[in-house]
Amino acid sequence: MSYLPSDLKYTDAHLWVRAEDDGTVTIGLTDHVQLQLGTIYSVEAPTVGEHLDVGEECIAVEAEQTNLEMFSPISGEIVEINEDLVDSPTLINADPYDDGWIVQLRPDDISELDDLMDVDDYQEMIEEEEE
After folding, report:
1. Are 4 and 30 a contacting pair, CB within 8 Å?
2. What ranges do the domains of the chain cover?
3. What is the DSSP code (8-state) at residue 117?
């Protein structure tokens, strides 16, 4: 069973989103999807300063089981990427919600978070996928 923090928002593409105190949001892969992917070999993220729109391709993951392209759950400007993933992409496998975060962005409209799933809705979606 995967670990799902209750204070995060989730997408149907298995990304988590955390609103930070400084007004940015942090985005990463959920524990559920990293378990399905197996060992993660590489992660490609947008560059700092790049602007993303909701639904725009933003993260590419190469893993043991498959390769994934992920789409931005929220619009905004990339303010930081997790440089540690360049040399250690398995940080996502080891700690997807802390050391394994992928990007931080400054949202255009923080209310876009309201369109994402809470932990209960995400858990329900996972259970439906597994049926």
Report:
1. yes
2. 9-130
3. B
Burial class (CB in 10 A: 0-12, 13-18, 19+), 40: buried
- Amino acid letter, residue 82: N
Rounded distance, CA 84 to CA 112, Å? 28
Assign domain 9-130 to a CATH class.
Answer: mainly beta
- DSSP three-state, residue 77: strand
Residue 8 has pLDDT above 80, yes or no: yes
User: Of all residues in the chain, what percent are helix, strand and coil, respectively (each to 5)?
Assistant: 25, 35, 40
- For residue 63, pLDDT over 90 is answered with yes
Residue 93 region by backbone torsions, left for phi larger than 0, else alpha for psi between -120 and 50, else beta: alpha
Please tell me the predicted confidence (pLDDT) of residue 1.
58
**C-alpha span between 30 and 3 (Å, rounded):** 8
Determine the pLDDT at residue 52.
Answer: 96
- Residue 30 scores a pLDDT above 90: yes
For the segment 94-121, what is each residue's pLDDT rounded down to a tens digit? 999 999 999 999 999 999 999 999 999 9
Kindly tell me the sign of the dihedral angle through the C-alpha atoms of 26, 31, 32, 33: positive
